[in-house]
Each structure stands twice: as structure tokens, then as C-alpha cells.
């Protein structure tokens, strides 16, 4: 049952990405209460929550030998040392990190270079599980994951010279395939933005959706594309080029 819906154990997997998003949202709430509502008590409360989750991320998900973060399997009581873009999402919390930021960035960049995930024209895959037929695995690339991967790497731009070019290359893969799918689609294919793309190509072909047909016009794709264009192709944001 490997790599199929029959074998998933979602309720037994503690995810890196969800915890990172929780910690980041607590930071936003702390800033909101301090700067806009002038409520330092509430701000301090959310700062405490952010610190608590951030410490838990380091304690539970960090691989002590390799330095990368992995989901934790409750039933097997061990880290799931497989490639997913979310393995680097804790970089989103780098601004508040008390650790060696330059070392963390170097570790992540080396990990990505060695993972094989950067070898594809259309961005970065949602996993490297080549034996899977599910929509959340290779060769599918999910635009929102590509977006989060790119902005995670941008957190390292001031600490590592490879970070910005790597982030831009990943973003450009998605932007190119999305552009081609909408304005230069393959013969016989509709001009569309897709929920997922096949990262092996940059011609705009959709990813494989598994148990339902490929979805078009997708809001998440639109949002990811717009923000990546803003980050990498507008004058006010393109400061690290």
C-alpha cells in the first residue's frame, strides 16, 4: 500500500509545515496587537506561543546529524527522512532564530543541491517519490509549495550568496511553465492555469491529479504567481539581484 491513499496515516504524522505556519501566524498576531491595537499583554501572549512552537520545531523536527527538518512519525517514533519542500520551511522563522543562521542556510542549500529536486524545468516537485501515482507526489509541482520554497530561501539571501539565485531559479521554473500553459499551450490543450504542473516540463502541462481531473483557474496558483512576479520582477522588491 506504499504511495497510495490506502496507506496514508495522516493522523499519525506531525507535519513541519503546519507548525511553521502556526509559529509565523503567532508572530503576526503579536505584531498586530503591539503596533495596531496597543495591547502589549496580548502581544506578549502571542510572542510566548510563537517561541514555544519554534522551540518545539527545533526539538522535534530537526535532524541532529544533517540539520534539516523532517515530519515526525508518531507510530514509528522517528523522523520521516524523505524529501518534501516543507523540509526547509522553518527558514521562514529565520528572522527570530537564536541559532547560527549562516550555518542553517548553508545546510539547506547543500541539502537542496544534493536532493535532486532542482533538476526540473518546471519548478520543484512536491516530493521525490517516483513510485507514487498520487497527486501530492512526483512529478507534480504544487505552485503554493514552490512559492513557499522560494520565499524560505530568500530568508537566507543575506547569509549565503547561493540563496537568491536558487530561489529565483525555482520561481522561474513555475512562472515559465504557467506562462506557457496560459499563453502558449501545447496543441490540443486548453489555455489555462492549473492547480498543479508536471515539473519535468516547462510547457505548461498540468500535473496528474490522481482521483479527480486536473483543476483549472486555480486561486492558489494565481496567488503564488502574482507574489513571485512581485518579488522577482518589480523594481521595489528586486533588491538582491
* Overall pLDDT level: 93
Spell out the helices and strands N to C: EHHEEHEHHEH
Strand order of the largest sheet: 1-2-3
The structural domain count equals 2
From the alpha carbons, calculate the radius of gyration and give it in angstroms: 19 Å
Query: What's the helix count?
Result: 6
Poorly predicted ranges? none
SS elements, strand count: 5
Helix percentage: 40-55%
**Largest beta-sheet details:** 3 strands, antiparallel
What structural category arises from helix and sheet content? mainly alpha
Shape: globular
GO molecular function: alpha,alpha-trehalase activity
Family: Belongs to the glycosyl hydrolase 37 family.
Protein name: Trehalase
EC number: 3.2.1.28
Q: Your description of this structure?
A:
The chain is 44% helix and 4% strand. Helix 4 packs antiparallel against helix 5. The strands form 2 sheets. The chain has a 3-stranded antiparallel β-sheet with strand order 1-2-3, with no helix packed on it. It has a two-stranded antiparallel ribbon with strand order 4-5. With 241 residues, the chain is mainly alpha-helical. It has 2 domains: 73 residues; 159 residues, no CATH class. Keywords: Glycosidase, Hydrolase. It is an enzyme of class 3 (hydrolase). One of its GO terms (molecular function) is alpha,alpha-trehalase activity.
Amino acid at each position: 500500500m506504499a504511495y497510495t491513499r490506502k496507506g496514508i496515516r495522516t493522523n499519525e504524522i506531525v507535519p513541519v509545515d503546519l507548525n511553521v505556519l502556526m509559529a509565523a501566524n503567532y508572530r503576526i498576531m503579536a505584531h498586530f496587537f503591539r503596533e495596531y491595537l496597543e495591547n502589549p499583554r496580548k502581544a506578549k501572549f502571542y510572542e510566548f506561543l510563537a517561541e514555544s512552537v519554534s522551540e518545539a520545531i527545533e526539538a522535534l523536527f530537526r535532524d541532529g546529524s544533517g540539520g534539516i527538518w523532517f515530519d515526525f512519525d508518531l507510530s514509528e517514533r522517528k523522523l520521516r527522512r524523505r524529501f518534501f519542500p516543507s523540509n526547509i520551511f522553518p527558514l521562514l522563522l529565520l528572522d527570530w532564530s537564536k541559532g547560527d543562521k549562516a550555518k542553517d542556510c548553508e545546510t539547506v542549500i547543500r541539502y537542496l543541491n544534493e536532493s535532486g529536486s532542482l533538476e526540473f524545468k518546471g519548478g520543484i516537485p512536491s516530493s521525490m517519490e517516483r513510485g507514487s501515482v498520487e497527486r501530492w507526489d512526483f512529478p507534480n509541482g504544487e505552485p503554493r509549495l514552490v512559492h513557499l520554497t522560494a520565499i524560505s530561501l530568500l530568508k537566507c539571501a543575506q547569509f549565503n550568496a547561493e540563496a537568491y539565485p536558487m530561489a529565483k531559479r525555482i520561481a522561474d521554473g513555475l512562472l515559465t511553465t504557467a506562462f506557457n500553459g496560459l499563453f502558449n499551450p501545447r496543441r490540443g490543450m486548453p489555455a489555462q492555469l492549473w492547480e498543479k504542473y508536471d515539473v519535468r516540463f516547462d510547457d505548461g502541462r498540468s500535473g496528474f491529479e490522481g482521483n479527480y481531473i486536473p483543476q483549472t483557474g486555480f486561486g492558489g496558483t494565481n496567488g503564488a504567481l502574482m507574489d513571485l512576479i512581485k518579488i522577482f520582477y518589480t523594481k521595489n522588491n528586486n533588491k538582491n539581484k
